[in-house]
Amino acid sequence: MAFCTHCGSKLDENTNTCPSCSEQAGQNTGADNTQSRSQENVFQKLNNTSDTTGEYDAKDIADNKVMAILSYIGILVLVPMFAAPNSKFARYHVKQGFNLFLGYIGLAIINFLLGMIKTTRYIWGIPYQTTPAIVVLIGWLLGIPLFVLSILGIINASQGRAKELPIIGKFSILK
């Protein structure tokens, strides 16, 4: 059973035009499809990062998956950094996890400064209730991408893949 792509009316299989809106069957204005394709392309391009899993030894990957996973959990990046310094696989994930950890430190500084805005408003005699909720919302919104990158890193490490994280994977602070 076919439906009109313009108005959604039911069409007979042999009909070339819609009886409700007179549009050609199978024709689409393309606005919705183009928008969803462009959004899909943005996310695909963002997550289309290099995968260098083939360069690592399978035994090294199997032995150090847990260390690689720990690399993406905040300060726990220090555990594999010092406990598995000879593992190429763990070291790869430590480099990315350290970049992510620095991002979390930056987020903490921004949240502190945003908190100071709320505090100083109170000190100046402006009631706390009048402080816009946008100050708190900004802190939360800045943390979402870091959280998503952490989850992506944990998924890649648990699957034994050495795949760059979007955006921060290209930067290498550690050698």
Describe this structure in words.
This protein folds into two domains: 1-48, no CATH class; 54-170. A hairpin with a 6-residue loop joins strand 1 (2-3) and strand 2. The chain is 55% helix and 2% strand. Helix 5 runs antiparallel to helix 6. It is flat and about 70 Å long. The chain has helices at residues 31-47, 58-63, 65-70, 78-83, 88-123, 134-158; strands at residues 2-3, 10-11. With 175 residues, the protein is an all-alpha fold.
Pick out its properties.
6 helices, 175 residues, mainly alpha, two-stranded antiparallel ribbon
Radius of gyration: 25 Å
| Content of β-strand | under 5%
The CA-CA distance between the termini, in Å, is: 60 Å
Please state the structural category.
Answer: mainly alpha
Let me know the largest β-sheet. 2 strands, antiparallel
Biggest sheet: strands side by side, in what order? 1-2
Helix and strand string, N-terminal first?
A: EEHHHHHH
List how many beta strands DSSP finds.
2
Name the shape in a single word.
flat
Whole-number mean pLDDT: 80
Which percent bin holds the helix content? 40-55%
Question: pLDDT under 50 segments (min length 5)?
Answer: 27-33
* Count of domain modules: 2
Q: Give the helix tally.
A: 6
